[in-house]
Amino acid sequence: MTASTSRSASAPIRSAPDGSERSSPDRSSPDRSGFDGDRLPPVRFAYDPQTWKEIAYLLANFPMALIGFIYVMTVIVTGAAMTVTVIGFPLLALGLAGARLMGRFERGRARLLLGVRIDEPSPLPLRRAGGLLQRVWLALKDPVAWRSVLYDLIRLPWGVLTFSVVVPSLFVLWPVLPFLARGLTNADRAMVRALLSPSDELERRIAELESDRGVVVDTAAADLRRIERDLHDGAQARLVNLAMGLGLAKEKLLEGQADDVVAAMVEEAHGEVKLALQELRDLARGIHPAVLTDRGLDAALSSVASRCTVPVKVTADLPSRPAQAIEGIAYFTVSELLQNVSKHSAARSASVDVWRTDDRLLIQVWDDGRGGARLDGGSGMRGLAERLDAVDGLFVVESPEGGPTTVTAELPWRDRG
What we know:
The protein has eleven helices and seven strands. The protein has three domains: 49-198, no CATH class; 212-287; 290-412, Heat Shock Protein 90. 59% of the residues lie in helices and 10% in strands. Helix 1 (49-81) packs antiparallel against helix 2 (88-113) and helix 4 (143-169) runs antiparallel to helix 5 (177-196). The strands form two sheets. The protein has a five-stranded mixed sheet. Strands 1-2 form a two-stranded antiparallel ribbon.
């Protein structure tokens, strides 16, 4: 087998001095190096756009660091020195607000030139702070502003260093300048992320508090709607019937009709009064039972347990009474859980244990029912969990199929004021 040599149809054949045939190079096609034999290579930048952005960022470091350092040394230091007088604290608060704005500008500069994506911190809730003193105190303890101040203090020597390295490198060390720029801007990225990014824990806590506040507001609105509905459909309707019945009885008396007819109408009105009073008592108990106010959580839980359709053993080991709000939440939590035991568990017995551990109030409700309770089961468990979460509490449900069910609630302990 012989090897065949393919020649380009457009390449002419020339005879070499030794008699062998050689193909002349094709001037119309580029060689292996990528250059055209007749034309120069296309003009292009030596550095890519990101490299030029990093160089621009490093060159701007010195003037920006100088501005930030002068601001801190004049406004912040002056305000701190004048805190011995009354005017010093508002001046320092204004200076910290300005430092917050400078930090916002630096985050934008890093986002534009370095591609560093940092979320903006939550604004200060000055509108909800109340008076002037509270707003000043809120600005003085702002961690975002103080980190911006620290950032401006340490940036001046770094800005001088980067400026003195980049400017000569543009003329002397330009072949390695992209590597220098990348290394220096990586240090800038680290400083921006460390000092100008919002605190994850603080932002998480703010988000939790905002969510909890929404839950508290929604729960209070739902309770008000429930009270209004119970009054409108219950006691108010019965009082209207009572007024109508007494009016008819009065007319019968004026007309001189038989006493037995009037007596029957008065008797019916008397029954309506007793039912209306009972509904009002139930409504008041649902808002805040008198036994809870007068005798505490132990007696109130025993009263709730006595109305349960299942025998309930109540054990309360509390050395003192907690704050009224915590006591009320604990009472209504147990009340709702025992209602679920009566309606859904098919249990034969249940127990309620309440005790204090350090600075926490723990509640445990157990029953030997069929189990299967879940937070999304539609039995009010989700509402209880949200209500406890709104006050930094916990709500845990352990209810395997077939039972038993154990619900543990945990509340922060606050002493009764």
